[in-house]
Design goal:
The chain is mostly helical and 118 residues long. Helix content is 66%, strand content 0%.
Length: 118
């Protein structure tokens, strides 16, 4: 059985690889792994997270005023109120539809639409 080879990379080497990726000298992580013989699949990604340029990371920062926060809160409340109102209207529509079907059966009318018109 062969012994497992564990590679340790110096901080200077890690910084060099990350620097070349950040500057564009290396086009991709795969290219860096191939050029320098880095075996681990997530090794370079972990170096980038640790040493990479902060401005190249994708982050979303939302800046809002207190007025915007209040407005957003009011809009969310209004949205919930409208959802409840819509659900109520759906229930009413289903109730009326059922009522028309029962009324049609009572009066012996085959077509609900004709009954609604009369």
């Amino acid at each position: 059985m062969r012994a497992k080879i564990v590679r340790r990379y110096s901080e200077a080497f890690k910084l060099q690889v990350v620097s070349e990726l950040d500057s564009g000298k290396l086009g991709s992580i795969a290219e860096a792994r191939e050029r320098y013989g880095i075996a681990g699949k997530m090794t370079v990604q972990s170096w980038l997270r640790k040493y990479g340029k902060e401005h190249q990371r994708t982050r979303i920062i939302r800046v809002e005023t207190p007025n915007e926060r209040d407005q957003l809160k009011k809009l969310k409340q209004e949205n919930e109120r409208l959802k409840r109102a819509l659900a109520d209207e759906h229930l009413k529509a289903a109730l009326y539809e059922s009522w028309f079907e029962v009324a049609c059966e009572e009066f012996g009318v085959q077509d609900v639409e004709t009954f609604k018109k009369n």
